[in-house]
Amino acid sequence: MATVVLIDAGGTNIGSVRYALQRLGVDAPLSSDANEIRAATHVILPGVGAAAPGMARLRETGLVDVVRGLTQPVLGVCLGMQLLFEHSEESDTPCLGLIPATLRRFAQGSGLRVPHMGWNSLRVDRPSPLLAGIEPGAFAYFVHSYAAPVGAWTLASCDYGGAFSAVVQRGNFYGAQFHPERSAAVGARLLRNFITL
User: Fold this and answer.
1) Contact of 16 with 182, CB cutoff 8 Å
2) CATH numeric code, 4-195
3) Left, alpha or beta for 186 (phi > 0: left; psi -120 to 50: alpha)?
4) Residue 179: active-site member
5) Of residues 42, 116, 144, 179, which has the active-site annotation?
6) What is the residue extent of each domain of the chain?
7) Is the model's pLDDT at 33 over the cut of 70?
């Protein structure tokens, strides 16, 4: 039986992520306790907001090295995914450094609104158990101003003035830029796939 823990990184979407997991029959406690996080079979790093406060919260709770050292499946959601990367242009923030790339702000003046907000279709770039049952072209719900580039870590991408990573993996670290808790059946499927990894 999977034991899932949500890292308390101070994000505002934690309640809705917990509720989405409860709908799948999983009660995931919110924790900043290193031992509880290490003991879980699956760990989710949620987050909404800015990179600098998100990293500050992980430092305050002593969890930066804990997260970096996890060996079970870890899923970063929205800002949580962005924190897996090396660096964010947002306030020039060093992040966890688990994926070797920099997040950049969407270009202004290209006729596109920033933040990128609303439904966008996914392009599946490489097959993964995390994406099982999610069809190419399926829609997911996004709210973000900074985007991860496409690279060897990209499982699925989207286009918004250019391609960006929507779902990523490097080793046991996974990430979804979209909000699974707001993405209807696609989001529920991604969370279900994650907890069966």
Assistant:
1) yes
2) 3.40.50.880
3) alpha
4) yes
5) 179
6) 4-195
7) yes
